[in-house]
Model the fold of this input.
Amino acid sequence: MKSYLMPHDDMPFWMFRGSASSVHQIGKALRMGLLTYCVAVPSLGTSLAKSEKAHYLKLASRRYAWGNPDLPTESAVSCALLSLALEVSTEIADSPETEEEEDHVLVLNLSNFSEVLAAYDYLLVDFYAPWCTPCRDLLPEFAKAAEQLKAESSQIRLAKVNATEEHHLARQFKIRVFPTIKLFKNGDTSCPMDYTDGREAKDIVEWMKKRIQPSLIILEDAAAVQSLVDSNEVSVIGIFKDARSANVENFTAAAECMDDIPFGITYSDDTFSKYQLDKDSIILFKKFDEGRNNFDGEITKMNVIHFVNRHRLPLVIEFNEQTAPKIFASQLKTHLLLFLPKSSPDSEDQINNFKKAAENFREIIFFIIIDSDRNENKGILNFFALEKEDCPTLRLISMETEMVKYKPESDELTSEKIEEFCKQFLEGKFNYHLVSQEIPDDWDKGPVKVLVGKNFEKVAFDEKTNVFVNFYAPWCTECKKIASIWNELGETYKDHENIIIAKIDASVNEVDSVMVHSFPTLMYFPAGPDKKIIEYHGIRTLEGFEKFLDSGGHEGAREVSHLEVVDENEELELETETEEDSGKEK
Done:
């Protein structure tokens, strides 16, 4: 290829990755006027390595902003792109050299993660544990979805990571429950999107196809802006003067990370006039609270993302299936929960007091209402060791400190008492709240010793004994599956001189030394003065447990100071319990 069409130097790079189909999409974008210039690299023949060809292709396009009125129409632009596409299309379709695949699902590890990520526009990654029941249930559906998308020559690929082996990746992406599924776009690891839809193949395919729709809605004038705002609960509007600016590029990048909220973009003069603006601006519109938030600060991708996450939810929000993903995705990690029956005649006054107190802690503490009347919230009450009779009441939880819970000293629900509780927490004036049942009279009579919060430390850290503890929850399906095996294990070692088999209902008992995020969690406390804690990661069979104990806690073990990664998805278990309870009620 001898001819060139060089871009202007003042235009920012748009790093392009993708398959041959993506090259043709760029051609379509050029013809539609969404891209202006493309430089054709003269030598992309077989003499270049795959990585070099990919590098040149990434430099082959420069992005021009959406909706710019001065779009060039030179046919040479499309011709240059077409020549480039024809020359490199077969090469771009090649897979990374280190790529592994099982049932159409890419297998990722630390050594190939970055390379595979760079090779695909959209990569949906399942972080799983081999023994996790929901993980095992998901894998065949995940494979079906992967096969369908691959057959359609989609830009989307599905991949999986065994997080129990790839600890570095699990820590990097803060994997705390299994399975966790994240979507990576265009090789960007800064803001992967959590998958929160159904677990069947059709759900995965439909969700992913929605994700590849355009991130921005082009708004021609102020009327179009108003129409978008009126038709959505929350919307984000970017109002810019220069379509080629870095501000537009950063706004677009943020939109691509947040496709559950409509992002609109406009360059129209009447929009500047309507909102009395004289510079590039971003406005979040919402049909609650103050109604509008203006972005203030440097327009960068992450600043825009943080701005939207900070203001997209109401000051006070009720927890339910629709709001849960948004609550957990919020930048606010300190949550104050008001548990109350909304059917109570006093509930309206209590909620109003809650809202009044929330006004003084905006962007500091997230105020959340839990309706204790709803059967779907039973699992949350269990997690806080609450019964319906305990409501109304307050609990505060810090999501950044291993989900530590705090309980107010007063039961009063006036706005003044709620504010006082929040201030005491922020000033560090009281210790966190650990719940515990009373010690049973016969706790040590059976082969499996029954521990509660009040006797845990004394038993688990006895310097003369090795203690193997099952942290369980009565409603957990996986816990029920290993219960009989745990009883057999207790029988096997009931006469052992220095091994104790124990269990603790961690849904209603908490201990300072171990933070349990999901169930079951199996921990080994070896004899000695060091107070070591070893997490069991082996197979959950009688033989596996015996081998672990007979090896002194080495087979299938990982020493931890606290739980970094967990082995079961508590939320899925809660859903299962709710479905079972609903079925019984019917």
